[in-house]
Amino acid sequence: MAAVIEAKGLTRHFGGLRAVDGVDFSLEHGEIHGLIGPNGAGKTTFVSLLSGRIPVQSGVITLNGEDITHLPAHLRVRKGVAYTFQITSVYPRLSVFDNVALAAQSRGAADVPAEVARALAQVGLTGLDLSIAGTLSYGHQRLLEVAMGLALRPSVLILDEPTQGLASGEIDGFKALIRSLVPQTTILLIEHNMDVVMDLADRITVLNFGQVLAVGTPDEIRRNRAVQDAYLGGDHAAG
Amino acid sequence: MTDRAKVWGVHLLVLAALFAAQFLLPSYHVTNLARIMVLAVFAMGYNIAFGYTGLLSLGHALFFAAGMYGMGLPVWHLEWLSLPALIAGLLAGGAMAGVVGLLALRTAGVSFMIVTLMFAQAGYLTLLYLNSWTGGDEGFVVARSGRVLLGFDLATDTPRFMAAFVLFAAGLLLCLWLVRSPFGRVMVAMRENEERSRMLGYDPFRVKLTALILSGLYAGAAGAAYGMLFGYVGATFATIQYSILPMLYVLLGGAGTVLGPFLGALLMFYLIDITSGYTDAYLFVVGAALVGLVLFAPKGILGTLRERALRWLP
Question: Which InterPro entries did the record assign (chain B) (predicted)?
Fold first, then answer.
């Protein structure tokens, strides 16, 4: 499989804090790739570098072989890298329709209303078009956020903690949705909910203190001693 | 009735009422109304930047004055006729907004307010400094030749009203179309959440610059028309007062509503006109009205109305 996004030696320090410290990473075409790590491991900083929200200090990012290290964020979106926010970031005072339409028209969709209907149907929000986004339940706002990402018809969809705050029933629906997107869309999934990651991901990258601790299939990651230490503390390894 | 029909119905009704007003109202009020319509065009431009895109500028007097002098100076020095002069004024407003925007849009929020204010102040002082060209603080009277448009003498009541009406109608319908267009949606998105909009593939700088230039074109057209219709060009129109006025109109009528700027201009104009007939302290009354507005209807008249009842109002 060919890499869609590849990062080499990616680094970003904030003062003395090494948020991302020389990370090599590759996202293979059509996979669901989980990104996990303890709190403060640098996950969000890392995907912010990939999506262009934060400038890179050193290292190189390529998208389908093209160097995008210094490409502004909005142009990366146009090239097919979509990012959904960890903290729900819909437009609360606009209608659900307008929220999704903004995404659809951004890539020049010919029939915006049809695209909006399609994206809303995918996440199961059909019929809520005219509701004001800020009046939706939290779970529905999370799904709207995902619908905005889908309406961009990205080749890479970066989901930052998408299931946070969803009810367990909603999580099952969400997993089915993500599975239905591949292999047309490549998914990078940052997730705290281990069941979701282990269940969905083809491969998992574990970050710790801004560095890659391990890369592998869910089974390999589960058995990996270093990962267990990072999550459960060093004593576990000794004991 | 569909929302679309309601929207067009309301706006065309307002235009029809304004057109009829010239036959029904006494001449004093007809002249006032012409003035209000031109100022409303200025405020509509302000509303595109502030109400829809969220750019709180304190420098719009500069764009208004650019339009006014862009029209007046060629008439004075180059003896241009009214139509090319009017177009020059329109373009001068847009160009000035473009230049200011290129620099000022590197800032946001309070810094943007201060930078635009400083640009406008610099523009005002430049007008005074170049007084052999601009007439300084005395300004100048627009020559008769520059006040005849397509054969109509704009110094007389009916052509003046009609010219103001045509400008206003064009501005209103264009604004209505703009805010309901895909780009209008992006302007609002920029106002609501710039970072989110960036991550949907929009370049914030470009969107804001475009909105500011559109805003400047409105201000320029209004400035040029004001000078031409009322026959005088002066540096007073470049003072901070003329940056504040459109903001007040917009806040009073309702920021982010198409008819708000006109309603605000109409009410504010007559509030001052009527109260100044009774007391020298008319600004006190204006101030009291604004305090009341902020307390009871912070979204302006039409903004409040939209929130409470008329969800479809653009």
Answer: ABC_transp_permease, LivM-like
